[in-house]
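Fresh eyes needed here. I'd like your take on this protein's tokenised backbone:
***
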Amino acid sequence: MDNSKFLTIRASLKLLCERFHSCFVMFEQRRRPLKIGIHADVLAEIGDAIQQDELCEALRCCTYNRVYRSRLIAGATRPGAQERDWGRSTPG
């Protein structure tokens, strides 16, 4: 990954952490499974502050790691973009 892409992803993650602190954290060890479809919720809330491709890269960075994947347990809660907006993990 080139340095400019890394910096863009890092800036996008920082924005997500600041705006949606109940969902997003910078440190991989503290990440929890996110609500399915959270990308649409985030774009609806702050679409003017982040491009869709930047959001996709940031979400990929959050979700494509061993710690995140190990926490995908059926029935576990998944935080959404709004603190009251929670989903549930599904089996399979």
